[in-house]
Structures are given as C-alpha cells and as structure tokens.
Design a protein that fits this description.
97 residues, 63% helix
C-alpha cells in the first residue's frame, strides 16, 4: 500500500452513507458534545496511564460511574468533570461556540 493513501473501512463507508440522511446527521450532531467529553476523559486517563479503578480512587467517583461515563450511559456532572480534570493536572473549561 502506498503511503498517504487512506482506505475506507466498511464503517467509514457506512458512516458516510448515514450522514447523507439529514435526520440521522442531526441526531448524530446532537450527541457530539457528549462523545467529545467521553473522548477527553479516556484520553486524559490513558495519558496518565490510569485504569478506571485508579481514576475512581483518585477522584472519589465510583469505578462503576467512571465506566458508565466512559461508555456513555451516564452524563458526568460538572463536579465529576472537575475532579477528573484535577487528577489529570488540568483545569475544567466550558465553552459555548
């Protein structure tokens, strides 16, 4: 395979096709902020080489809640996000664009 050529996976093809449907696209875009929060939490945890259990101990948030936040089944509170940010040596910031 040549360097710089990106092959589309079945997922990419499916995703591109689904995004052509305006209703699906609208619903997907509604969830983007939640997915971005999840990605940031997982990135922060992995950058610090922490397990979910480690993060739970350091934040005082139960391991089950950390797991539920990361899999999207619960939305973290501002307090939870602030604790997670502190463990990562970060400061929580909220922006409206």
């Amino acid at each position: 395979m040549k360097v710089g050529i990106k092959m589309k996976t079945n997922y990419n093809v499916f995703f591109d096709e689904m995004m052509k449907n305006q209703e699906v696209k609208k619903e997907y875009e509604k969830l983007t902020p939640q997915y971005n929060i999840i990605k940031e939490i997982i990135k922060l945890r992995k950058d610090k080489s922490l397990t979910q259990e480690d993060l739970a101990k350091l934040t005082g948030i139960s391991k089950m809640k950390i797991k539920s936040i990361e899999n999207g089944s619960i939305t973290p509170t501002i307090e939870m996000l602030s604790k997670i940010a502190q463990v990562g040596g970060k400061q929580l910031s909220v922006n409206f664009k």
